[in-house]
Amino acid sequence: MLVAVVQRKRESMGGSAVRVDKRAGVSDDVSFAEVGGAGVFCCSHTPLGDLIGGVVICSSLHAEHVDGYRQEVILARSLAARGYAAQRFHYRGSGHSDGDSSAATLGTMRDDALAARDLLAGRVPSSQIAFLGARWGALVAAGAAARSGAAPLVLCEPAIDPERYFREAIRARLIHELKAGVAQRPSSELLLDELRRNGRIDVLGYPLDLELYDSAAGRDLVGELGDRPRPVLIVDYSRSRAMRTPFEQLAARLREMSCEVTTRAVPEPSASWFSRRVLRTIDALGELTSDWLAGVAAPEAAR
Amino acid sequence: MTQTARKATARDETPLFFESAGETLFGILTSPVAEPSGTGVVLLTGGDFIPSLNRNRLWVRLARSLAAAGHHALRFDYHGVGESTGLVEHFELPRPFTDDLESAAAVLRSAGAREIVLVGVCFGAVTALASVERIEGLRGVAMLAHPVRDFELLEDLGTAQYLRHVIQEEGARGLLRRGKRLPTYASLVTNRVRGAAARARAGADAQDPTSRQLLDGLGRAARRRVPLLIVYGTEEGEGVEFEQARPGRLGDILNEAGDLIEVRTLEGNVHDLVGLDLQDAVLELTASWIERIAPVSAAQTTSEVG
């Protein structure tokens, strides 16, 4: 049998579940951690053998969180099998965690990522913890990395500009309604008015809340990252195997800030609000990330 | 003076791994925050690699709502999905994940549930209905957007109609992808020819294009006197197909079942759960139906204060 030990224990908030896979050399420990009085769903993926370092994985939002879910589980297990403890979590107000999405902001998400880092710091020296963010999660990871010394940062198809990210989401709703033949379709402007008026709009069955929208206004990924140079890996999913222009531009901006930037294109469909994407050759990201982390100099201790 | 039971949170939830047919599945058990009713509810997502959260964490909200009414609830990831182990290439309606569901129901029983209610969307509904005779203490099944025709089977849909469906849904690429399964389809077409011959012998009733899987499942549930809630949305084809199928064997089953089977239509797309209002309506409808088939006494839903 692949899984050697399965155990369940009741301790802390709601108890935790542990799965030990001796063949892969990995254990998964799932629990709820308390952050700001709320239960935050956390999964710790730990190597059974020697520990090289750790990675905090910051997910994207809503539909992109669901679409990328399996990919991130396999990524985390793949990293653990290569010696890197991986810490996944669900933001307060999302996933299995407590809270309402209307209270979530870019700041609370960053705090959740820092809480996840602290969980990891119990097993891995904080100087050896990196952050990985996918799409919206890249903004969160950048903010958390900026508060963690010179922590290395992996950005997967990063959302660079929150305003543009939200515009894409709204456009996805409009296109869905167009395809569905909805007679009276609001414009983007009307939807933004509705967001201001009601504090929330419905984007394909997910709430886009004003608190989050406002919390990200005027911010961008480079600004979140602060001034401190750090190693950065930018991963793009691109069928053409070429980095898309916005990510090349991001790499150039980060190099201007003296960051040591590596770019890699993975030949897979891009993520988007417009269509579901379930990646099948997803272990590639684990290998890519662990190889890159092994190559970057050990960052200074987190402060 | 009484007050309603408090809302369940992560404090009332236990993450767990459990075995099923050689794989390790992940689930979250929500414990009742009111006096336990003895009923446990299994929440099943659709196929397509949707983790146990469901869209906009609908299953998280429903599980916690059910716990406030005194029920246990379990949401879990199928094998190959979410936190579970295993590999799934694709989800096929004729091959529901009944082993996964049986293992999930066993978890609820071990937590103290004497009766089990199943709630599933699309593939989850197919899995739930297919398990009617395999779940000990089954109290009811809520089927959201259960497919009415087995598109992947060809047996229940004309070949030309099937090809049109594939092109409409997935374009020429979808057609090419299916081309890889030609040997399977060849055998299905053979079955189709045999089926047509059988229908010619059996008469008009056998011309019914409704999924045998659905009809047989409903029939089994009705014979076992298992209450069913069937829900479709106004924006999905399944609801229309369900109504079109009523004059056939489906109608006979519904008539014989009487009040055991409740059919409801909600505004929107129940299959994809697109729409916040629709999600609230699904949650409300499902929770109130469970309340009717597995009632909790007033003393259990409220607690004395002061």
Largest sheet properties of chain B: 8 strands, mixed
Helix and strand pattern of chain B:
EEEEHEHEHEHHHEHEHHE
Distance separating the two termini of chain A: 43 Å
Radius of gyration of chain B: 20 Å
Q: Helix/strand/pairing class of chain B, anyone?
A: alpha/beta
Strand count of chain B: 10
- The rough form of chain A would be described as globular
Instruction: Count up the helices of chain B.
Output: 9
The percent range for strand residues of chain B is 15-25%
N-to-C CA distance of chain B: 7 Å
CATH superfamily of the largest domain in chain B: Alpha/Beta hydrolase fold, catalytic domain
Mean pLDDT of chain A equals: 89
The CATH architecture of the largest domain in chain B: 3-Layer(aba) Sandwich
Number of strand elements of chain A: 12
Low-confidence stretches of chain B: 152-158, 298-306
Model description:
The complex is a heterodimer of chains A (303) and B (306). Chain A has 303 residues and is an alpha/beta fold. Chain A has helices at 62-81, 106-121, 136-146, 162-180, 188-198, 210-216, 221-225, 245-256, 283-295; strands at residues 5-9, 16-21, 26-35, 38-47, 53-58, 84-89, 129-134, 153-156, 200-203, 206-209, 231-237, 260-266. In chain A, strands 1-2-3-4-6-5-7-8-11-12 form a ten-stranded mixed sheet, sandwiched between helices. In chain A, strands 9-10 form a two-stranded antiparallel ribbon. Chain A is globular, with a radius of gyration of 19 Å. With 306 residues, chain B is of the alpha/beta class. Chain B has two domains: 2-148 and 210-304, 3-Layer(aba) Sandwich (Rossmann fold); 149-209, no CATH class. Helix content of chain B is 42%, strand content 20%. Chain B contains nine helices and ten strands. An eight-stranded mixed sheet of chain B has the order 2-3-5-4-6-7-8-9, with helices on both faces. A two-stranded antiparallel sheet of chain B has the order 1-10. The longest helix of chain B is centred in the middle third of the chain and has 21 residues, at 159-179. Chain B is globular. Chain A binds chain B through residues 1-3, 6, 8, 10, 13-19, 21, 28, 30-32, 38-41, 43, 62-63, 66, 69-70, 73, 94-98, 176, 180, 200, 202, 204-207, 276, 278, and chain B through 9-19, 22, 24, 26, 28, 48-51, 53, 55-57, 60, 81-83, 85, 235, 272-279.
